[in-house]
Each structure stands twice: as C-alpha cells, then as structure tokens.
Amino acid sequence: MKKIAFLLLFLSLGAGLSAQFELSAEVRPRAEFRNGFKTPSSSGFDPAFFVEQRSRLYLDYAEEKYTFRLALQDVRLWGEVPQIFKNEGGNTFLSEAWGQYRFTPGFSVKAGRQIISYDNERILGALEWAQQGRRHDALLFQFEGEKKVNRLHLGFAFNSDDDIPEPALLQRPGANFYSVSGNYKSLQYAWFNRTFAEEKGTLSLLAMNETLQNADSTVSNRQTLGTYFTYQVGKVTLSGDLYAQTGRLGGNTVGALLGGINATYPTKATPLTLGFEYISGKDDTDESADVTWFDPSYGTNHAFNGFMDYFFVGPANGTVGVTDLYLKTKWKVGKAALLAHGHHFLTASEQLDDSGDKLSASLGTELDLVYVRKLADAVTLHVGYSHLLGTETLTTLRPGNRQSNNWAWTMITFQPSLLKTENKKK
C-alpha cells in the first residue's frame, strides 16, 4: 500500500497542466470513556477507556472528462501492536477507490469502492462518525440537469467473497453463494431529487432493493421505498421523511415503517429544532412470522436517536422499534459552538415482562452535549458528554441493570491539503 501511494504521488508531479491533482490527509484520534455506551452497564462492571485513531491519505485527480480518487486508510487502537514489530494484523486498507467518467455535462458513470450518501443519510449514509466509515463497491449512473435542479442516480452492486479459490469460483455448484455477514448480496436503487423554486427546499424519492443471502442457498429480497423533504415556511424550516419496507425475508412477509418530522425556528439566541421519529417494531403478542420491524441497515444511524447509540448501532434494539421525541439547539461560545440535544425514547411496540405483564412504553431520557472549536483552518476539536437515564423497561429489554449511564469523548481532527495543482487551460 505504501509503494502504491508513493508511486501515485510521483506520477502526479508529472501530470499535464490541463489536469488537477490534490494530495490531502486526515489524522483523527478519538479518546472515549464508556460507562453504559450502546447498552446499560451492570453492577460490578468497570468503565472502559481507550483511544482509537483514523489516518487517511487522499489522492484526487481530475481532467475535463473524468475524476479519480484513491483513499488509503488505517484504523487502530493506540497500543494494540508492540512498539517493535515486523508483522501486524492489517488495519490498513482502501477506504475509497473509484473513477467517474462524464459522457456529457449531465450524464456520468462512477465505478469502484465509494461512499453512497443521500439526503439526511437515514437510509444510505457515509457513517463517517465510525472511524472506518461505510463504503460500497458499486456502479452508479448519474443524470443531473442544468444547475442540478433535477437529479437522478441509479446504483447497482453485486458482491462476492473469496472463500473459494478464484479458478474454482468460476463454475461450480453454489458458486455465487455469498457468506459475508451483515452485507447484501446485491443492491439496486434509484434516487431522484428536485430543488424547489427559489431554493426553498428539496424533495427526494428513493426506491431500493436488497438481495440478501439465506443460509439454505436461497435469497431474500427486501425493498425500501420512501421520500425525504425540506421546505422553508417563513422563518421555520420543515424537514421530514417517510419510508416503508416490504418484500420477504427467509420466506416471511416484510411490512415496516420509519417516519419523522421536525421544525427548526431561528430565535435571537439560538435555533431550536423540535421533532419526533417513529421506527416500527413487533408486538410481543404478535405470534405471526411477519417482519414488522424497520431496519435502516446502511444509514448513518449515529446521527439519530441519541449519540450514545442505543438504537440501530451495534445492538439493533431487537424487534422493539423506537419512538424518539427530541429537542435540539446550538449556542455560540466565543469562537466555538455548543450543541445540546435532548431525547425521550419510547418503545414502538407493545412489550411484555417475564410474567406476561405489559411494560411501560418509556425507555429513558438522554442528554447529549458537544463542544466544537476550530483551532486552525485544518484543525478541529470536539469534546462530548452524554448521559442516559433509563427506565425499568430499558433494563428489562436490554442487557445490563444500571439505569444511569454515561459516555465522554474528545476528538481532534487534522485535515491538511499537502499538495495541490490547479487546472491551467491553454
């Protein structure tokens, strides 16, 4: 990987004057204190503390007809390997490797390992909070009208694994069986976006099909259909989404919903955002085999339902679902900003305890605080603290018995541009 990086750097120095090249980097260490992060802690458990670092090198090259990106990435915990070593497990890998060719100003094709991210990243997102991020190996056809008022993207992916040596993989019984867990076997989607007149808002439509491998060599198909919008009404900005999932998983019918709406009002002191989100679950009393819980598998779930990641990050909250009532705001603090988010969580389904009695719908309340300060043009500091006060329902449904849980973190991000050449047309 190092040889490839240095070779591309060397070649870039000799690039034609009609091309543009940029070499940039990112170093992002994050220290975390976890005491009930993702799920309640338990009596006798000790908090965890660690530092995880992401390091990236970006190489971007552009000419009139095409664009190319290669991003190398290393993710590791501080101290996970000895100071003196010859070999290690291999935490360095390709984050992005794609090329985009423009057939016309409004039509292009993009192929390779890439970020697929749309709208508020609820269904398809980059997941850049996670140090490794989320990437897809895909082929995209992009149609974009003048000034990008109308945009249509068509995406396709087909995944294979390397558990069988390549020659045998070419033709044999079960040659296309896909054994990588947590991923789709194939993906097809269409995303359409329109910007309203005077840029008062946008409307997006998404239709996506996932083909998932079953253990018995058959496949399942699940479809996600929905819309996302933003619109300015006077001083108030409205934003919302509504998605339905259908299809079949392992022979079982899928019928699930996700929906939310919020309104942001810019007061003299600070903007206030009030909203709610509903993600369907499955009642304990529902004895059918139907899949009624929504699964936002490929979104940036950390951005929703509280920063402590109790829902759809790590543990997926089972089949309970969630209703999230929230209030968000942000203040200027000198040259910095302080974000404050408050959430109250409820189940989105009827749940029973071991005695068969109905549990209260309330899961708990979370407060998230994040201090953000730009120290230099390419350096940003984040400091965060979150506290979750859970209920008896939460500790009944999830591992752990402590109702009071907290998490603290600090992160500094360096993102310098190391070398850049500008286009010089004759």
Describe, in plain words, how this protein is organized in 3D.
The chain is mainly β. It has one domain (2-421): Porin, CATH 2.40.160. Helices cover 5% and strands 53% of the residues. It has three helices and 19 strands. The protein has helices at 2-13, 166-169, 392-397, and strands spanning 20-35, 48-62, 66-77, 92-104, 107-114, 136-144, 150-158, 186-195, 201-213, 219-233, 236-249, 252-266, 271-279, 322-333, 336-346, 362-376, 379-390, 404-414, 417-421. The protein has an 18-stranded antiparallel β-barrel. The two termini are 35 Å apart. 24% of the residues are buried. The mean pLDDT is 91. Residues 1-19 form the signal peptide. Keywords: Signal. It comes from Neolewinella xylanilytica. This is Alginate export protein.
List the helices and strands and how they pair.
Blueprint: H1 2-13, E1 20-35, E2 48-62, E3 66-77, E4 92-104, E5 107-114, E6 136-144, E7 150-158, H2 166-169, E8 186-195, E9 201-213, E10 219-233, E11 236-249, E12 252-266, E13 271-279, E14 322-333, E15 336-346, E16 362-376, E17 379-390, H3 392-397, E18 404-414, E19 417-421
Antiparallel strand pairs: 1-2, 1-18, 1-19, 2-3, 3-4, 4-5, 5-6, 6-7, 7-8, 8-9, 9-10, 10-11, 11-12, 12-13, 13-14, 14-15, 15-16, 16-17, 17-18
Beta-strand share of residues: over 45%
Number of helices: 3
Note poorly predicted spans: none
Number of domains: 1
What is the H-and-E element order? HEEEEEEEHEEEEEEEEEEHEE
Q: What is the class in the CATH system? A: Mainly Beta
Distance between the termini: 35 Å
What coarse outline follows from CA principal-axis ratios?
A: globular
Radius of gyration: 24 Å
Helix content: under 10%
What does the average pLDDT come to? 91
